[in-house]
Specification:
This protein is mainly alpha-helical and 151 residues long. The protein has seven helices and two strands; from the N terminus they run βαααααβαα. A two-stranded antiparallel sheet has the order 1-2. The termini are far apart.
Amino acid sequence: MGSTEITIYLKPDFTIEKIKELLLKPRLKLTITNYLRKSLKLSEVAIGLLMELKNKEGTINHQINNLAYKIKNYKITLDKPFSIKRSISTAGGISFNSINVDFMLVNKPNTYVAGEMLDWEAPTGGYLLQACISNGAFVANNIINKKRQNK
């Protein structure tokens, strides 16, 4: 009933000062998209979100303070969120019997699953969100560690 605002940190591991420092690098002939991708290693999704801002003036014109703030404090207004009854998850997804301890598919090596791809059969949404986020971090760390071991 009503709207709410959420804040996303598009570069959570960097301080605003670090972002500003990286944004001071010369842009040369790069588009703003390529500049953000190369200087900050922002994902395509994060760059897309920045390009969708209603007031793009600070972003496209490259005002560093404004852009750094938006990267650390990207705000999204949810105008009409669903009720909790509609938001609660239901059963369905990849069976836990189909994956190994690293959340890799048993029948498809190097294919990992995480979050709501799995059959959690969770009774409420809040705990499921935490499980999905934690699971995603666990899988990402496993993939990173596996790549490091193979070098």
